[in-house]
Write a structure and sequence with these properties.
three-stranded antiparallel β-sheet, 52% helix, alpha+beta, 3 helices, 90 residues, single chain
Length: 90
């Protein structure tokens, strides 16, 4: 199962981090010109996440921890054809 880890902070919300990760994957995919199934799957996962996520809610949820000095990461994955995430706070 393909998973993507997104780590927002005070400077970059989860939406910005997801967009940057998507751009990096797309750029790498175009430069290397490899037919890499894992990269394609990650890009599709991120694209779907960016199109469907409630970023206002995700920012609200994660910023409360970040403002307390805690680290936050979102683990994206696909389950039963749908994009899901786990929020991990440390």
């Amino acid at each position: 199962m393909v998973q993507i880890e997104l780590v927002p902070d005070l400077s970059h919300c989860v939406e910005t981090v997801a967009k940057k990760e998507y751009e990096n994957l797309a750029k790498d995919y175009l430069i290397t010109a490899r037919d890499d199934a894992e990269s394609k799957e990650k890009m599709e996962l991120l694209r779907t996440f960016l199109e469907t996520a409630d970023f206002r809610g995700l920012r609200k949820e994660s910023e409360s921890y970040i403002l307390k000095g805690q680290s936050v990461k979102f683990i994206l994955y696909r389950q039963d054809g749908e994009v899901r995430y786990r929020l991990i706070v440390s």
